[in-house]
Amino acid sequence: MSDQPAIAIVGASGRMGRMLIQTVLDSDQATLAGVTERAGHEWIGKDLGACMGGADLGVTVSDDPLEVFAKAQAVIDFTSPDATVEHAALAAQARAVHVIGTTGMDDSHLAKLSAAARHAPIIRAGNMSLGVNLLVQLTRKVAQALDEDFDIEVVEAHHRHKVDAPSGTALMLGEAAAEGRGVALDDVADRGRDGITGARKRGDIGFSAIRGGDVVGEHDVIFAAEGERIVLRHLATDRRIFARGAVKAAIWGQGKNPGEYDMMDVLGL
Ligand SMILES: NC(=O)C1=CN([C@@H]2O[C@H](COP(=O)(O)OP(=O)(O)OC[C@H]3O[C@@H](n4cnc5c(N)ncnc54)[C@H](O)[C@@H]3O)[C@@H](O)[C@H]2O)C=CC1
Ligand SMILES: O=C(O)C1=N[C@H](C(=O)O)C[C@H](O)C1
């Protein structure tokens, strides 16, 4: 076996799936173990290269994750919460590092991931880019330095196909702001303003989501006081930043003990 990890990509035809496959194929530090799509998808049983509009790669798109994971040291998963939970159990069975970018998880999904992480490492982040993970750190620091005279608002924009809101990144930023303030996000989050909402509650952390066109991902954390405003901003213009982070995580996770990790661990932030 080569010392480069073989990586399985699930959700091969997705916006992130395609980007991840290309990133692994271009990497000199990892190889492609195989790819999956959901049962019934038109790519199943076909050659991946042809599906992606190029020459044959000799890799057949599978709908059997366990068969693909058995050949892999890592699985990268940007699919849906229900699919990710199923993949987590199978990746744990195969003792493969599971890198999860999927967002929109609820508490029951997270509990199942924690159970799987008892058997193999899981690295999960709502955003795998270096820039956003730095922004998370900055947000925590700024929130720590300012008092509640500064109202905190997180504003995010994404493409028209995104199905969850607020984005995983917005929630990471909100969590960091709450931590900086020494409060629990659940106690202060204001996620759905509409109609006669009443004046803003002091100390709340507000979230707003814009959906349209092909926006890759934009996040502002606004600290607004009387007479001044600080805006921390990240603009993603290319999904490669997420794919590079995920492949880095898959490599970093090799040899790690079972448990739950995030991109702060991978990036050493
Ligand atoms: N953490 C991060 O850095 C990022 C996270 N994301 C998240 O990744 C997820 C996917 O995003 P996109 O690629 O834009 O969505 P997409 O809808 O383009 O792709 C998802 C793919 O997963 C496939 N899929 C669904 N169930 C499956 C199953 N059981 N087995 C195999 N494949 C299955 C779908 O058929 C689809 O091709 C979302 O939750 C999104 O928020 C997206 C970009 C960056
Ligand atoms: O769905 C997306 O596209 C993205 N999802 C992630 C999120 O929910 O924050 C990361 C990135 O913003 C793109």
UniProtKB/TrEMBL annotation:
NADP(+) binds at R38. The active site is at H158, K162. One of its GO terms (biological process) is diaminopimelate biosynthetic process. InterPro entries: DapB_C (IPR022663), DapB_N (IPR000846), DapB_N_CS (IPR022664), DHDPR_bac (IPR023940), NAD(P)-bd_dom_sf (IPR036291). Residues 131-267 form the Dihydrodipicolinate reductase C-terminal domain. It catalyses: (S)-2,3,4,5-tetrahydrodipicolinate + NAD(+) + H2O = (2S,4S)-4-hydroxy-2,3,4,5-tetrahydrodipicolinate + NADH + H(+); (S)-2,3,4,5-tetrahydrodipicolinate + NADP(+) + H2O = (2S,4S)-4-hydroxy-2,3,4,5-tetrahydrodipicolinate + NADPH + H(+). Its EC number is 1.17.1.8. It is found in: Cytoplasm. It is an enzyme of class 1 (oxidoreductase). Pathway: Amino-acid biosynthesis; L-lysine biosynthesis via DAP pathway; (S)-tetrahydrodipicolinate from L-aspartate: step 4/4. (S)-2,3,4,5-tetrahydrodipicolinate binds at H159, G168, T169. Residues 7-128 form the Dihydrodipicolinate reductase N-terminal domain. Keywords: Amino-acid biosynthesis, Cytoplasm, Diaminopimelate biosynthesis, Lysine biosynthesis, NAD, NADP, Oxidoreductase. GO terms for cellular component: cytoplasm. NAD(+) binds at G11, A12, S13, G14, R15, M16, E37, G101, T102, T103, A125, G126, N127, M128. Its main location: cytoplasm. GO terms for molecular function: 4-hydroxy-tetrahydrodipicolinate reductase; NAD binding; NADP binding; oxidoreductase activity, acting on CH or CH2 groups, NAD or NADP as acceptor. It holds the Pfam family DapB_N. NCBIfam families: dapB. HAMAP family: DapB (MF_00102). Homotetramer. Catalyzes the conversion of 4-hydroxy-tetrahydrodipicolinate (HTPA) to tetrahydrodipicolinate. This is 4-hydroxy-tetrahydrodipicolinate reductase. The lineage of its organism: Bacteria, Pseudomonadati, Pseudomonadota, Alphaproteobacteria, Rhodobacterales. The gene is dapB.
